[in-house]
Amino acid sequence: MGRRQFAAILRKDLIRELRTREMLVSMFLFVMLALVIFHYAFGVDEDTDLTYFTGGMLWVTFIFSALLGLNRSFAQEKDEQCLDGLLLCPVDRVTIFFAKTVGNLVFLLIIQAVSVPVFTLFFIERSYLADVGLFILVLLLADLGICTLGTLLATISMSTRARDLLLPIVFLPLIVPLLIAATSATTAIFADGADLGGLAARLGFLAAFDAVFMVAAYGTYDFAIGE
Amino acid sequence: MSIEEGAKFVAAAYAIILAVVIAYYALSARRVSALQRDVDLLRREVEKREAAGSGD
Amino acid sequence: MDVKKLTSAPALFAAAGAFLVTGLLLAFLYAPIDASSMGFSQKIFYYHAPIAETALLAFGIAFVAAILYLRDPDPKWDRLGYVSVRLGLLFSLLVMATGMIWGKAAWDAWWAWEPRLTTFLIVCFLYAAYFVLRQVVEEESRRATFAAVFAIVAFIDVPITFFATRYMPEGLHPVVITAGDSGMEGSMFLSFMISMVGMTLLLVALLRVDVAAERLKDDIDDLKTRMGG
User: Does the model's ipTM exceed the 0.95 cut?
Assistant: First the structure.
């Protein structure tokens, strides 16, 4: 029963966004513009080698883009009172959480699928095609952590007076460890190439981070959604 | 770094800790007694009013 | 009942003071000067580390209080949580201050991105967010609920952050070991432990006082409502 409801909520969110594409377009433009700004902010002259900054640039951009997306999707919910309607149905709160998390994850992945090639074009000299599988793994694990925490916190912040202003404040300190792991893993892949063994610790850390916060969200989402 | 220089830093660190902690405790204790006075005052007021109200 | 709480706080504070002063004396008169390059400035450690652990203890108390509140929404748990976080934040700021002074003394730099300083910096931002969150929720029980959820998530993140700042950044700062990590010899350990007990007693004393203050504030609000009605 939970699975059908999960699918229904997920499909509703996906269809709604794919129809208008407002949020996706905004997120994408944000990422592109951020990349251009990074070039001018860091690469002052032609010879500046940004290779060891690439991981950081990428993840900073993705995290802020995710915040944008989270704020947007929950603001819509709030304005259209979808959440209230949803709560009236006999749906398990946790199902709502997972459906929303996966929805946000899908949006983030769509943005990343388009922006990573552009990023590669702009900033990466070395081909990392050999490690692309590893890179995708890092991406997925980090995205999961971002979306899990982000969805939980966005649910809370949207019910407050400050709404979208609160989310970065509560979210960013919490996400720092994930950022550290994702950034160093990504830079390793872009700069020198890496193998599974070398990244095992970071991947394990990301997976553990995801697991821990999924459990925490599972335990607290009932309270986060309030009412 | 000589002992004298090191000692200055150490003294500064401890001084800050003691100052902050004592100040915080003093302020908190003072706040509690002020609040306690307010509560007692209010409580008496409320009881007075409730007695007067029910007396009518 | 409130009177009892108040009288025990000064007693606790006095006891804390006794331990802390003893620890201080031991640190300076009994424990040897550190053999490493830090020399005399290492003595800061005898308060710096206990304060750090007490801060974490305070956040841990907030974590437990949060869980208890979610299971049984009694305002007393919310008060305890709020006060614990505030004290934890205060102690964290002290950790940063003493850590920076120590850094200046030991390496001639006010700031270094070393694990302990960095983690406490993040911790400060994390729990500052707790107060921002409380500020923007108007309804009382919702505020307490959201704050509890955040206190739980935040505390879980603290050891994760410690781990990440210590083991992940590579090639940057070689992890500069602050004396507490290498084995301590007996006299150092004793001084440290006594200061540790002192700091913990101090935390309990401050908790008592502040929780009493919050309780009284709530009483005043209730009484005012009764008056208005």
Answer: no
pLDDT band at C90 (very low <50, low <70, confident <90, very high): very high
Chain C interface, Cβ < 8 Å to B: 2, 6, 9-10, 13, 24, 33, 39-41, 43-44, 47-48, 51, 90, 94, 97-98, 101-102, 104-105, 202, 205-206, 209-210, 212-213, 216-217, 219-220, 223-224, 226-227
How many angstroms separate the CA atoms of A215 and C153, rounded? 10
Residue C37 resides in a domain: no
Looking at the predicted structure, is the pLDDT value of residue C171 above 70?
no
Residue C217 lies in a domain: yes
Residue C175 pLDDT exceeds 50? no
Which are the contacts of A124, defined by CB distance < 8 A and separation ≥ 6?
Answer: A51, A54, A190
Nearest residue in chain A measured CA to CA from C160: A177
User: Which of A156, A174, A184 is closest, CB to CB, to C146?
Assistant: A156
Cβ pair C165, C175 in contact under 8 A: no
Which two structure tokens, joined as six digits, stand for A221? Answer: 């989402």
pLDDT confidence of residue C207: 94
C-alpha C119/C-alpha C123 separation (Å) is 6
Q: Which residue has the tokens 């009382």?
A: C140
Q: Does the residue B9 lie in any domain?
A: no
Cross-chain Cβ contact B21/C39 below 8 Å: no
* Residue A46 in domain: no
Residue A181 has pLDDT above 70, yes or no: yes
Task: Spell out the alpha helix ranges (H) of A48-195.
Answer: 54-80, 82-88, 93-123, 132-158, 166-191
Q: Number of folded domains in chain C?
A: 1
Domain encompassing residue B29:
19-56
Q: What is the mean pLDDT of residues B22-42?
A: 92
Best mutation target among A149, A184, A189, A223 (most C Cβ atoms within 10 Å) is: A223
Q: Would the CB atoms of A205 and C129 count as touching at under 8 Å?
A: no
Q: Residue A218: is its pLDDT beyond 80? A: yes
Determine the structural domain holding residue C99 and report its residue range: 2-29+44-228
The lowest-confidence range among A43-52, C44-53, C119-128 is A43-52
Q: What is the distance between the terminal CA atoms of chain A, rounded to a whole angstrom?
A: 23
Q: What's this model's pTM, rounded to 2 decimal places?
A: 0.90
Residue C81 within any structural domain of the chain: yes
Instruction: Flag whether C12 is in a domain.
Output: yes
Q: Other C-beta atoms within 10 Å of A3: how many? A: 8
Domain range for residue A173? Answer: 2-41+51-224
Q: Is residue B13 part of a domain?
A: no
Task: Kindly write down the DSSP assignment for every residue of A166-219, as one continuous string.
Answer: HHHHHHHHHHHHHHHHHHHHHHHHHHT---HHHHHHHHHHHHHHHHHHHHHHHH
Helices and strands: H and E segment counts in chain C? 6, 0
**To which H or E segment does residue B48 belong?**
helix B3-55
Residue C201: CB atoms within 10 A of its CB come to 21
